[in-house]
Amino acid sequence: MIATAAGLAIPAAELDRIVPPLDALEAAFRPLVEDLPYDLEPATGVLEDDQ
Question: Measuring CA to CA, which residue among 35, 16, 33 is closest to residue 25?
Fold first, then answer.
């Protein structure tokens, strides 16, 4: 639904291939997210090296 709202046209065959890994990621990360404090700031950018 998010892809559709963003204007992405993903064929059903591709969705069938993409959804299982996303479900596995959700199952792995959901318990970790529940332990985060509510006042923790989200990481919204990419850290750059000091090179």
Answer: 33
